[in-house]
Design brief:
The chain has 267 residues and is of the alpha+beta class. The protein has helices spanning 54-71, 96-115, 138-147, 149-152, 170-173, 187-192, 200-217, 223-235, 240-246, 252-266; strands at 13-16, 19-22, 36-43, 74-80, 84-91, 127-130.
Length: 267
């Protein structure tokens, strides 16, 4: 794959150390490339909801699947939020603009028809950031950012695992290949996580890595962390220091105090 850099500067092709690099400006004509990976985002007009219910979310994913079949796109990650969406997609052909025009236009028409509405659904043009394919782990970082959106937006309950959020691709990564949509590609992200094979063992390893990433995003006094810490103290021989470090819960004294308050509330 070409090494692609997103820079707000010229849109010209240059070479560096024998490798091809591209610079581009967002929205600039000619900023489409074959075998490129993009982080694409768009939000609702006036920041209003683009999904009224789960049927709308299913409709968007079905439309995305149709778009992938038309364009040959491969999706590495997605997340549907109430008033915006994130996609990390790869374009084997330089057809991002035409594909996004079809996707947004088709979903808008279907959404309006379903809810008996008219007019714009999305706020202007989408944003597309080129992912630098030459940096080891960069695709993984972008996909983690996308998958962690529900935590940042507090759409997951205080004791719920991030993988329980239904409207991102993260739960699909944990399913066997036959239960995933054909347009979702998981092998590259698994590889950057150090998981060589899309197997049951590999998916268990992926769950463990994501459980840790999920916890790191939460505040040190998060109820889910306190509950896990309490179970570890009751059911294992792990020390308070080990638990505090693994769950990113601050000092041992802070952790001890939170466990004391939790026990007090249980009585």
């Amino acid at each position: 794959m070409l090494v692609l850099e997103a820079k707000i500067c010229a849109g010209v092709k240059t070479t560096h150390a024998g490798r091809e690099r591209y610079s581009w400006k967002r929205g600039q004509k000619g900023s489409e490339f074959a075998d490129a990976v993009y982080h694409v985002m768009n939000r609702g007009n006036r920041r209003e909801k683009i999904f009224q219910d789960d049927a709308d979310r299913e409709l968007f994913l079905a439309t995305l699947g149709e778009g992938c079949a038309k364009t040959g796109w491969e999706v590495h990650a997605f997340c549907l939020m109430p008033n915006h969406f994130h996609l990390v997609l790869e374009t084997p052909q330089p057809n991002l603009v035409a594909g996004m025009k079809w996707l947004l236009g088709t979903y808008t028409a279907r959404f309006n028809r379903r809810h008996q509405l008219s007019g714009h659904l999305f706020c202007g043009r989408y944003k597309a950031l080129l992912v630098a394919g030459g940096n080891a782990g960069y695709l993984r970082t972008v996909c983690r950012y996308v998958h962690l959106n529900p935590v940042r937006a507090k759409l997951t309950g205080p004791t719920a695992a991030l993988r329980e959020f239904r409207w991102s691709s993260l739960p699909l990564y944990l399913e066997p290949p036959g239960k995933r949509p054909a347009w979702l590609r998981v092998d590259r992200v698994l590889g950057e996580e150090g998981i060589p094979k899309d197997s049951a063992a590999g998916r268990r390893e992926f769950v463990a890595a994501w459980s840790e990433a999920d916890l790191k995003m939460r505040k040190k006094g998060d109820l889910a962390k306190v509950e896990i810490a309490g179970r570890l103290r009751r059911e294992t021989t792990m020390t308070l220091r080990w638990i505090a470090i693994r769950l990113t819960m601050g000092s041992v004294a802070y952790l001890n105090n939170r466990l004391y308050l939790a026990r007090k509330q249980e009585k």
